[in-house]
Design goal:
This protein has 279 residues and is mainly alpha-helical. The protein has twelve helices and four strands; from the N terminus they run ββααααβααβαααααα.
């Protein structure tokens, strides 16, 4: 359904050609992040050492995410001092946290409003947003997911410093590494589940508002560039910006550059989403 609804596209916060609303793009972001967990599995292995109990605990947690089989390292002495596998696991968690942050920031922007923001989507309303302003609703699930992601990113720094602080044959910093990794995986697991169940599954697209934004945008002048050239289109867009008039008013009503029939033929859904630039 969303693939048939146009929404304004913005590059560097400026209007440009429209695109189809597709929430699945957020899924693709996170799928790539989850693949990172498979990249470090060859580095993760059991070894016999003073902190083998800590290591075993971490493997049990990581196995839930990546479903890998632990194995013995071929150099047990090196494995006792090397914490590179922990750094790889922490980096995978950080990568997921960064992608979650981007997704939640986008959701909060797209749902901002309802009257003075973008208002292109509506998030599930879970609680009042203010004890002072009646009717205010905050995007609490994306907000809490952001905070969980920030915590995971900060914990990655702890893992990095602890992994680099072990001297000679034994790294005595594994307790804080295990705590940081456990907290990373725990908060990210809980926040991902909450984001899906309490936010993503209940998103509603404001189709009429999106349509109005697209047709009122100056960015759609790009479709007419093959017909009139870059400079004339730029001048029309500039005039629309200065006067507040729509492109339809300027091109069809005032300048008579297109008839209504030609306008309707050019500015169809398919041509806006997948333009055919014919002279």
């Amino acid at each position: 359904m969303c693939r048939f609804i146009k929404q304004p596209c913005r590059l560097i916060y400026a209007d440009c050609c429209p695109e189809c609303i597709d929430i699945t793009q957020f899924v693709s972001h996170n799928q790539k992040a989850f693949l990172c967990f498979n990249d470090f599995t060859e580095c993760m292995c059991l070894y016999s050492g003073f902190y083998s109990g800590v290591t075993l605990y971490l493997f049990c947690l990581a196995a839930v995410i990546s479903d890998f089989l632990a194995f013995f390292y071929n150099d047990l002495i090196a494995a006792t001092s090397d914490c590179g596998a922990y750094v790889a696991l922490s980096s995978a968690c950080k990568s997921l946290a960064v992608k979650l942050t981007k997704v939640c920031n986008d959701l909060r922007l797209l749902a901002s409003g309802p009257r003075t923001g973008l208002g292109e989507i509506v998030l599930p309303q879970l609680q009042p947003g203010s004890s002072i302003m009646p009717g205010k609703v905050n995007p609490v699930i994306p907000e809490v997911t952001n905070q969980a992601a920030f915590l995971a990113i900060g914990l990655d720094t702890s893992v990095m410093l602890a992994a680099s602080a072990g001297q000679l044959e034994l790294n005595v910093m594994e307790p804080v590494i295990s705590f940081a990794l456990y907290m990373q995986m725990k908060v990210l697991t809980n926040s991902c589940n909450a984001l899906r169940e309490k936010c993503i599954d209940g998103i509603v697209v404001n189709a009429k508002h999106c349509e109005d934004l697209v047709m009122g945008s100056l960015g759609i002048i790009t479709v007419l560039k093959p017909h009139f050239g870059y400079k004339p289109c730029a001048n029309i867009a500039r005039e629309g910006f200065l006067t507040g008039k729509s492109l339809h008013e300027l091109i069809v009503d005032e300048k008579k550059m297109l008839t209504q029939e030609q306008w309707d033929k050019v500015f169809t859904h398919d041509n806006l989403i997948n333009p055919k630039f014919e002279q």
